[in-house]
Amino acid sequence: MWDFFLKTTFTSPGGGASPALDVRGPETLFAALVQAAGRFGRHTGGQWEDMKPSTHSYGDLLKITLALGRLSAKITDEYEHVGVLMPNMVATAGLMIGLSAFRRVPCLLNYTAGTEGMQSACQTARIRTVITSREFLNKANLVEQAEGLRDIELVYLEDLRPRFSLADKLWLMAFALWLPGLAVPKADAEDPAVVLFTSGSEGKPKAVVLSHRALLANVRQILAIIQVGPGDKVFNCLPIFHSFGLTAGTLLPLVSGARLMLYTSPLHYKLIPEVVRDKACTVMFGTGTFLNHYARNARPEDFRSLRYVVAGAEKLAEPVRQLWREKFGIDILEGYGATETAPVLSVNLPDDNRYGTVGRLLPGIEAKVMPVPGITHGGELHVRGPNLMSGYYRHDAPGALEPPDSEAGRGWYNTGDVVDLDPDGFLRIQGRLKRFAKVAGEMVSLEMVEAIARNVSAEAMHAATSITDLGRGEAIVLFTTDSDLSREQLAAAARGLGYPEIAVPRRIRVVDTLPLLGTGKVDYVRLREVAAVA
Question: Taking a C-beta distance cutoff of 8 angstroms, is the pair 331, 348 a contact?
Answer without folding.
Answer: no
